[in-house]
Specification:
Uridine Diphospho-n-acetylenolpyruvylglucosamine Reductase, domain 2; Uridine Diphospho-n-acetylenolpyruvylglucosamine Reductase, domain 3; Alpha-Beta Plaits; 4 domains; five-stranded antiparallel beta sheet
């Protein structure tokens, strides 16, 4: 371990004076953490500051501005684009102690929370009041509200309720100079000046640190129907999606290509609801407010799909336990980590009409460059979002940039987006200018330069 310099010790002492002894981590307490959910990437800076209020964040930021101290913000550290990576000269500010749910309002249908609250904690608090926080993702137990705002996280039910942006009403944030910006709007309609939350959502911690938020809630659905089906091919898949979109209760349409399903189904009988080798598989979920009527509508949908020859095999969940088991097939990232590591992870958006052509083109380019190529392809087809894990042998990590170049080459041929919900972070920044117009890059730079001219916040993120 590299000993702290005198400057580091001075910084630690000044931060400790603001947040107290509990608010500072140093030494092995820093190195024992990881900035990446899938591999050990410890923070390299001298300390982690853990403020307990917006006021403390404000004072820390004012201190950093005076010292010219670079800052990286940490939430749940579940991001896979390197947005939480922290170098030797960067101070980490973790919002883990700011995890209070201040209010759940079942009349206004809002929740007021601190940024360190996890998605799962908010979901549970809302459920206790007969409400639902609809943003849902596999990392719900670790991902924080502040982190999902910073990345505009999506997840499993974007098709029904939208991304984090659509579920955010207001926020509070701290600028680089310590200025606290309170824009804790609770109103659905509010056209009073710039809507500042939309400036910050998806900005990946480069413009300010979000400390509190007002999140939109919905009445908790009283019915949930889930079917796991296999289809004959891509044309049948698109036709099934078109039919499913007629369901007013449709909440998820999760597709698993054979490379993904074969891998996961081989991991255990409890993850093999239908026989592999029959084309793509789909998890279809509908959530509504009338159990009897919703069940009838869902059954009619499945029957119509059968009659149209769109479904080869289907399993319909008959209990909450079976619903959870079917979702476990779709949320099997640990199987990919165990069976395919090292791998390069992709989170892209493609026009649904071109998804299959893109996937095949990417595999063709990879196959021409590498003798060994393994992939696992899955995603939220209803909202254009596809995930691909790529393994090209033991040297995959060393080939990461070239693998990305090939996949993004295929993506560009179909006018896709290089990230759908995970963000650019540090790991994709080299590719951003190829996928944004010159005017867009100029506007983003001007906005960032105006709020953080010295680039002290998440300096190496985005561009």
């Amino acid at each position: 371990m590299i000993p702290a310099t005198a400057a580091d010790q001075d910084l630690i002492a000044e931060v400790r004076a603001i947040v107290g002894e509990r608010g500072v981590l140093t030494g092995e307490d820093v190195r024992g953490r990881s900035c990446d959910p899938f591999r050990a990437v410890p923070p390299l800076g001298p300390m982690i500051a853990r403020p307990a209020s917006t006021s403390e964040v404000s004072r820390i930021m004012a201190l950093c501005a005076r010292r010219g101290q670079r800052v990286v913000t940490h939430g749940g550290r579940t991001g896979v684009a390197g947005g939480a990576y922290a170098g030797p000269d960067e101070l980490v500010i973790s919002l883990e102690r700011m995890a209070r749910i201040e209010e759940i309002c079942d009349i206004g249908l809002v929740a007021v929370v601190e940024a360190g609250v996890t998605v799962e904690a908010l979901q549970n608090a809302a459920a206790a009041r007969g409400l639902l926080y609809p943003v849902d993702l596999g990392a719900r137990g670790s991902a924080t509200i502040g982190g999902t705002i910073a990345t505009n996280a999506g997840g499993n039910r974007v098709l029904r309720w939208g991304m984090t942006r659509q579920n955010l009403l207001g926020l509070e944030a701290v600028l680089i100079d310590g200025t606290a910006v309170s824009a804790m709007n609770r109103l659905t309609k509010n056209n009073t000046g710039y809507d500042l939350k939309h400036v910050l959502v998806g900005s990946e911690g480069t413009l300010a640190i979000v400390t509190r938020a007002v999140m939109r809630l919905v009445p908790a659905p009283s019915s949930q129907a889930v079917a796991f089906v296999s289809v004959a091919g891509h044309e049948a898949l698109l036709a099934l999606l078109g039919l499913a979109r007629r369901l007013s209760t449709l909440s998820a349409f999760e597709v698993m290509w054979p490379d993904y399903y074969d891998l996961v189904s081989a991991s255990g009988a409890d993850r093999r609801p239908v026989e592999p080798g029959r084309g793509p598989c789909v998890l279809i979920e509908a959530m509504g407010y009338s159990a009897v009527l919703d069940r009838k509508i869902f059954e009619d949908f499945l029957e119509g799909a059968y009659e149209a020859g769109l479904i080869a095999e289907a399993v319909v969940a008959a209990s909450d336990r079976q619903i959870a088991e079917l979702w476990r097939v779709r949320e099997a990232s640990e199987v990919i980590v165990r069976e395919m590591s090292p791998f390069v992870s992709f989170d892209v958006s493609v026009d649904v009409r071109h998804v299959e052509a893109f996937v095949e083109r990417a595999k063709t380019l990879l196959g021409a460059a590498y003798r060994l190529v393994r992939t696992a392809t899955f995603g939220h087809l209803g909202d254009n979002n596809i995930h691909i894990a790529v393994h090209v042998g033991p040297g995959t990590a060393a080939e990461e940039t070239n693998v990305e170049r090939l996949v993004y080459q295929a993506l560009g041929e179909f006018c896709g987006a290089i990230t759908a919900e995970h963000g650019i972070g540090q790991l994709k920044r080299a590719f951003l200018p190829d996928h944004k117009s010159a005017g867009e890059m100029t506007m983003m730079r001007r906005l960032r330069d105006g709020l953080d001219p010295d680039r002290l916040l998440n300096r190496d993120v985005l561009f």
